[in-house]
Amino acid sequence: MKDILISILSLLPTREVARTNLLSKAWRKLSAFSSLPVLMFESADFLASPRKDTNVSSFINVVDSYLKLRQKDASLAKLRLHLHLNDVESRSLIDSWIDAALERKVKELDLFMLPRGRARGKPYSFPAKIFAATTITVLSLRRVILEICGDIDLPALRKLYLGEIRCDEQPIQKLISSCPLIDCLHIESCHGLQKLHVSGLANLRRLEVIWCYELKRIEINAPSLQYLSYQQGKCPCDVVLRACEFLRELTFWYSIPKLSLDFRTLRDWG
After folding, report:
1. Where does the At1g61320/AtMIF1 LRR domain start and stop, copy by copy (predicted)?
2. Mean pLDDT of 180-204
3. DSSP string spanning 167-190?
């Protein structure tokens, strides 16, 4: 019976799952100590009504109950946190939610911290322990501060998505070079990024670089690369491809960069 209830809850939006607390004691107990494999929390779902103060409190209580009260031996397949920072002003509270997910061996972590109002000038800086999460296979970071001070230990990471992040190439390069098993890399609207060097990723099959307006040069040495998408405005950018003999699809949107190909790449294209 419990497995059936969990299957039903897994199909519902998080806001609707929270409302199941009202159904019965059995459902209330199940949701409070939930073993749902996927948890997706978006503050906009909870803050739609005029009673905003009540809804903020409700949203915080829901996230707390699903994460902090979750049994530590109940693994977590995916956690999505899409928040407006002025709705959940205590950043230490967000840290505690991420810590709870990491303790439960989360595999996919999707963070989108949108600053607005008073929080507009203060992007979220997530806990450094994310970079030592050995179970994470998919990591998506948007509208956060990318600061890497220590070592990186993400041995299981396969897919990396970076969006709307303000940083130069150093932290991005360090992150990429420390995760050799990445097979999908998506970089979008990263302000301050002028050079991107992608190498040492033997499994990389898909690379997308979108709307990085300050980008001047991209160097790619990826022997398994099959799909490359470059989407940019009118800003000039050099794209250098080396050892990409398995490249099958090359897509340019809105502009054609200065493209350099080595012999091995040209040979496979005929």
Report:
1. 78-243
2. 95
3. --HHHHHHHHHT-TT--EEEEES-
